[in-house]
């Protein structure tokens, strides 16, 4: 089948007025996010409560050399600090490898083959997670699979639409993003309860099953998705002086958001340990699974959309809607306030356990903060970056998540050396630093990015 025939086939059948390939891509991503967030909700607790303890840690293949390498860099690590470092490296490289996976797909194998390879690798990784011996191999397979799948499946969504179909492309990405959030909500709920009732490996096992369902969905719709994404080419490679100023301004904005991303993503790492040790999880005879709290921020990233859009529209009617930089700054302040909710509750509770509404409100606040800064950052870079380097700049945005996730692993290693109140105060300060930087440089950056 030629590329022209393939493109025609991708756009001929429709789903809600969109190319039918969107249906298969959205459901594939929903299954993949279900498995990813379900596993992510378990892995830190699994390491701290079982895998890294005597009787299990000795069975992990290659772990002695791996631990020696980490401790040569970071010094002696307790079980919790070691788990934090492992999680930080894992989640960081999940956002680094898509850059490599995209390059391989663009130059050699095409996006369709890359997604299949990624899904197979991630499925194998989830299966390997069920055995202590293959834990490090499982993480490697998951990181590699994410590299092949994550960016390339998003690129295929955009390629379903003609170049002049911007409005429909945007709506298509909204549907695709909704599938992501639905998977992110359901994954921790189901994996968490199975792990609590039947054991850790049942939680990881259901994640593997849903990743395989994602692969099956993609293969079933294989002929409706583009084999290779056509890349735009531009005459000349040099940027003008004004374009360079825009690029540098965007890099500064991306660096600023690392502060609030670091404060945000700790919800997937140390927060689970804090909840397990300091929150009253019993509701009568029912024990709330700790991973359930990780669904809250994704849930509020869905249900918070109408609220945030309503707030912005009301502000626009009064000509007070904040610009992109101000919205990013507001996201930082909301993230800081969310961390302070934990600090206040810790002081109020004293030596008693904290009410479960507290981590719920913390995660909900982070979900709203995410809506303020992350989609705004993506839209800003997509709109303002010069066409010649637009894709590169979007890649840098996701590289910022590699930095922030790596940082949460390192910072999480200090948790046991600090009182919980000090630890979460530090994260509030990290998020607030992002807000302060926007206050200091936001107007100057806005003048460069939005010239009159």
Q: What attributes characterize this protein structure?
A:
single chain; 2% strand; mainly alpha; two-stranded antiparallel sheet; 14 helices; 452 residues
Quick recap:
The protein is mostly helical.
Characterization of the model:
This protein is mainly α and 452 residues long. The protein has helices at residues 3-12, 21-51, 63-74, 79-128, 135-159, 166-198, 200-220, 241-265, 270-278, 293-317, 324-349, 357-384, 390-412, 420-449, and strands at residues 14-15, 18-19, 282-283, 286-287. The strands form two sheets. Strands 1-2 form a two-stranded antiparallel ribbon. A two-stranded antiparallel sheet has the order 3-4. A hairpin with a 2-residue loop joins strand 3 and strand 4. The N and C termini lie far apart (48 Å).
């Amino acid at each position: 089948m030629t590329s022209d025939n393939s493109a025609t086939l991708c756009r001929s059948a429709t789903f809600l007025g969109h190319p039918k390939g969107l249906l298969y891509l959205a459901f594939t991503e929903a299954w993949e996010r279900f498995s990813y967030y379900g596993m992510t909700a378990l892995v830190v607790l699994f390491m701290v409560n079982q895998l890294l303890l005597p009787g299990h840690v000795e069975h992990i293949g290659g772990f002695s050399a791996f631990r020696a390498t980490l401790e040569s860099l970071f010094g002696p690590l307790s079980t919790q600090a070691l788990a934090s470092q492992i999680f930080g490296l894992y989640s960081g490289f999940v956002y680094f490898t898509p850059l490599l996976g995209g390059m391989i797909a663009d130059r050699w194998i095409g996006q369709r083959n890359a997604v299949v390879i990624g899904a197979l690798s991630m499925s194998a990784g989830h299966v390997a997670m069920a055995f202590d011996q293959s834990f490090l191999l499982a993480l490697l397979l998951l990181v590699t699979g994410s590299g092949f799948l994550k960016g390339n499946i998003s690129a295929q969504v955009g390629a379903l639409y003609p170049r002049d179909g911007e409005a429909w492309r945007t709506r298509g990405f909204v549907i695709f993003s909704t599938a992501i959030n639905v998977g992110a909500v359901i994954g921790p709920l189901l994996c968490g309860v199975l792990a609590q009732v039947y054991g850790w490996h049942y939680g990881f096992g259901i994640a593997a099953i849903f990743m395989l369902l994602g692969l099956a969905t993609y293969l079933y719709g294989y002929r409706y998705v583009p084999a290779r994404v056509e890349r735009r080419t531009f005459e000349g490679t040099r940027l003008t002086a004004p374009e360079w100023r825009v690029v540098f301004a965007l890099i500064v904005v991306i660096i600023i958001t690392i502060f609030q991303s670091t404060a945000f993503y700790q919800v997937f790492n140390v927060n689970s340990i804090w909840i397990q040790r300091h929150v009253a999880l019993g509701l009568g005879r029912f024990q709330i699974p700790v991973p359930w709290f990780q669904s809250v921020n994704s849930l509020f990233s869905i249900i918070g959309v109408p609220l945030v859009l309503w707030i912005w529209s009301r502000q626009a009617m009064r000509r007070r809607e904040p610009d992109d930089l101000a919205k990013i700054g507001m996201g930082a302040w909301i993230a800081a306030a969310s961390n302070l909710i934990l600090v206040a509750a810790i002081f109020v509770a004293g030596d008693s356990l904290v009410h479960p509404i507290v981590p719920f409100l913390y995660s909900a606040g982070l979900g709203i903060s995410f809506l303020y800064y992350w989609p705004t950052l993506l839209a800003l870079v997509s709109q303002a970056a010069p066409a010649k380097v637009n894709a590169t700049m979007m890649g840098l945005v996701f590289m910022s998540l590699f930095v922030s996730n790596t940082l949460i692993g390192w910072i999480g290693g200090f948790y046991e050396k600090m009182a919980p109140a000090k630890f979460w105060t530090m994260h509030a300060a990290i998020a607030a630093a992002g807000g302060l930087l926007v206050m200091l440089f936001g107007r100057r950056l806005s003048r460069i990015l939005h010239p009159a």
